[in-house]
Design brief:
49% of the residues lie in helices and 9% in strands. It has 431 residues and is α/β, with parallel strands linked by helices.
Length: 431
């Protein structure tokens, strides 16, 4: 069913009077990733599935943060008077589940996090993926998705499912995919896990190389009422690769960890059928309490004018990347440290964080100024920043051509050499 900008495309399955269980998808997938779980789950629950914006034919209204996706999910549920529910989410869908537990605990009865993490890789990795998609489209991501999602044996044995996965990514709206990458780049709840107050199952494939057992154990160590289930012989998209095991774990978790005391008053290609391998799980029969980690102390409220330094660090990292900022700050010493603080506080916290221009426009202005000044080292880092801020290689070329007229051909000639090398490095998909 189609959805307005503040809601999500959704579908219900199961008895109308049953408690609601929500299944949240991974980036690049549709609600059909849960097809093999639904027949068993609807015996006890009214199953609600949703598509991410621009996925599975959903309207292409990009959501730039996990909080935005969570708000849209709640707005969709509010239309049907669903106030309290269980939630299971995979990867990005799991991030939505954590956000629900932290921001809306009164609505969440029980939680399952599948192939999830309190922080998904690094911000640089996801912003780099956005640059690749903006430059090359989704085909490079689509062709490599089976390598990230499935074990090699499963992919070889199930060519129909492998092709289904490729086509699912290939038909996603690129702008919505990039926005979802930005949402994952900004997602980091490591310091907040102790505030998750609902019974939580953390489920992971033993061979998941994206968010594997190490990330799962971080979740279990941080969430007070959490238990771990490791599914052997499965990679990242474990509900598709080992559907029977995941179904069994979800049924056991939501049957024992959630006692509902409330009333809860599409043309897509489904997953091809695949044989189910026998699975053994490490999950204990009952939730195992985990030692509570104290949440970080809240920052004191500043008096008077807010110091722009913290905002500057945030913007500097978002624009230039964590790796670049970490390297520069690590090189700072007693001689240069004050200068780096000045840059962070005023160039990034004051100027780059002003609302008058968007970041694309600020990148254009910065590139032009650097060409005029002949600052080629800075031009390289800001060409990378321009790609992250949404400029395409063609647009950067036009900026440099414009600069050639007003700043001089020799300056632009040097700038083209630097920018060309950076663009080649940043936009060539990895094999």
């Amino acid at each position: 069913m189609s959805a307005p900008p503040n809601t999500l495309q959704y579908r219900f399955d199961g008895p109308e009077d049953a408690p609601v269980l929500i299944l949240g998808p991974s980036l690049g997938t549709t609600w059909h990733m849960w097809d093999r779980q639904v027949p068993e789950l609807v015996k006890q629950w009214r199953v609600f599935r949703f598509d991410l914006p621009g996925h599975g034919g959903a309207p292409a209204y990009p959501a730039g943060s996990v909080g935005d996706l969570t708000d849209r999910l709640l707005a969709t549920l509010d239309r049907f008077g669903v106030q309290r529910f269980g939630y299971a989410g995979c990867a990005l869908g799991g991030a939505v589940g954590i956000e629900l537990a932290l921001r809306h605990p009164e609505r969440l009865a029980s939680l399952a996090l599948i192939a999830a993490s309190p922080r998904f890789g690094t911000a640089d990795e996801f912003r780099q993926r956005g640059v690749i998609v903006r430059t090359n489209g989704l085909d490079p991501i689509a062709r490599t998705s089976p390598d990230r999602w499935f074990t090699s044996g499963f992919a070889a044995a199930q060519p129909a499912i492998t092709e289904w996965a490729v086509q699912m990514v290939r038909t996603t709206d690129p702008g919505c995919y990039i926005a979802a990458c930005e949402a994952l780049a900004a997602f980091d709840v490591r310091a907040d896990l102790a505030s998750v107050g609902v019974p939580t199952l953390v489920l992971v494939g033993s061979d998941d190389r994206v968010t594997g057992p190490a990330e799962a154990r971080t979740l279990v160590a941080g969430i007070p009422d959490a238990r771990l289930a490791v599914v052997p012989g499965a990679s990242h998209l474990v509900p598709v690769e080992q559907p029977a095991a995941v179904t069994d774990l979800l049924v056991r978790h939501f049957s024992t960890a959630w006692q509902p005391a409330f009333d809860s008053t599409t043309a897509q290609t489904a997953i091809p059928t695949a044989p189910v391998a026998p699975v053994v799980t490490s999950a204990p029969p009952h939730p195992v309490p985990i030692a509570e980690i104290a949440p970080a102390a809240p920052d004191p409220q500043p008096a008077g004018r807010v110091d722009p330094y913290d905002a500057g660090v945030k913007v500097r990292r978002e624009v230039l990347g964590d790796a670049h900022v970490d390297r520069v700050l690590a090189q700072a010493d007693d001689f240069s440290g004050d200068f780096q603080e000045l840059l962070t506080r005023y160039a990034w916290g004051e100027i780059w964080d002003r609302p008058g221009l968007d970041r694309r426009s600020r990148s254009i202005a910065t590139l032009t100024a650097l060409v005029a000044g002949g600052h080629l080292d800075e031009l390289a880092s800001h060409t990378r920043a321009a790609l992250r801020n949404g400029l395409t290689p063609t647009e950067i070329k036009e900026v440099l051509l414009q600069a050639a007229v007003y700043c001089g051909v020799p300056a632009a000639n040097s700038a083209f050499k630097v920018a060309q090398q950076v663009i080649r490095e940043e936009t060539t998909p990895s094999e």
